[in-house]
Design brief:
By secondary structure, the chain is of the alpha+beta class. The chain folds into 2 domains: 103 residues, Alpha-Beta Plaits, CATH 3.30.70; 137 residues, Pseudouridine synthase I, catalytic domain, C-terminal subdomain (Alpha-Beta Plaits, 2-Layer Sandwich). It has 5 helices and 10 strands, in the order βαββαβββαβββααβ. Strands 1, 2, 3, 4, 5, 6, 7, 8, 9 and 10 form a 10-stranded mixed β-sheet that branches. It is globular.
Length: 253
């Protein structure tokens, strides 16, 4: 008998979720998925997620896994089956068979988050659930210059919450781009080997502050060295953030 796990790629609008991780009495992505799979299987099914997105954070390509032997629907049918049985703010986009030793979180090579800034003079009402409106002018070049100083391997204590559970705060950032898409729209994309609690949102808040002249562009190394959350910029709101992509070795499929 073939033994394998199932990896689902998910997209969701995080507005009405209290984050990914299950929490008693609250609607979470993990909670909805486990209730859904358990109803199909007739017994409890647990899922493991690649990233524990915060309340209000969206996903274009979140990944979860579960034991294939516990759910009777084959992976080939799961995308179609999910269309009519999951709520409309949570969609399965891809279902894959993966090796039994695959781990959706620990085997991720890198993750990319995209943050959307509405930089128009007035907020765009149709972006209000997915973009953070910055009510003042920001300089793109200053933002990118500050972002470039975050590349590489650093202790990111200054860019995470004090309650972040990880003892090791060292992470590697491979790429940060601040791209103006139009006069009133900017994307900030951050790619790294892993992220701490609120790390991307704190990076974005710091870059926006640098772009507005509230933080000197050349202050980034000192902020990193301080290992003090108070030295970095404010935390950008959750609703502008989307988990954009997670990369894995092809060997696991």
């Amino acid at each position: 008998m073939e033994v394998f796990n199932v990896k689902l790629t998910l997209a969701y609008d995080g507005t009405d979720f209290h984050g990914f991780q299950r929490q008693p009495g609250l609607r979470t992505v993990q909670g909805v998925l486990e209730a859904w799979l358990s109803s199909i299987a007739g017994h409890e099914v647990e899922v493991i997620g690649a990233s524990r997105t915060d309340a209000g954070v969206h996903a274009r390509a979140q990944a979860i896994q579960y034991d294939a032997a516990k759910v009777p629907v084959p992976p080939a049918r799961m995308v179609h089956f999910a269309k009519s049985t999951l709520p409309p703010d949570l969609v399965v986009t891809v279902a894959d068979k993966v090796h039994e030793h695959f781990h959706v979180r620990f085997d991720a090579l890198w993750k990319t988050y995209r943050y959307v800034l509405d930089v128009g003079k007035v907020p765009d009402v149709f972006r209000r659930r997915y973009a953070y409106h910055v009510a003042y002018a920001v300089d793109d070049e200053k933002m990118q210059s500050a972002a470039d100083q975050l590349l590489g391997t650093h202790d990111f204590t200054s860019f995470c919450t004090a309650r972040a559970p990880q003892e090791n705060k060292v992470r590697t950032i491979y790429q940060i781009s601040c791209q103006r898409q139009a006069d009133d729209l900017m994307y900030i994309e951050v790619t790294g080997n892993g992220f701490l609690h609120h790390m991307v949102r704190n990076i974005v808040g710091t870059l926006v502050a640098a772009g507005a002249g509230k933080i000197p562009v050349d202050a980034i190394p000192a902020i990193l060295a301080a290992k003090d959350r108070q030295k970095a910029g404010p935390t950008a709101p959750a609703h502008g953030l989307t988990l954009w992509h997670i990369e894995y070795h092809k060997q696991w499929s």
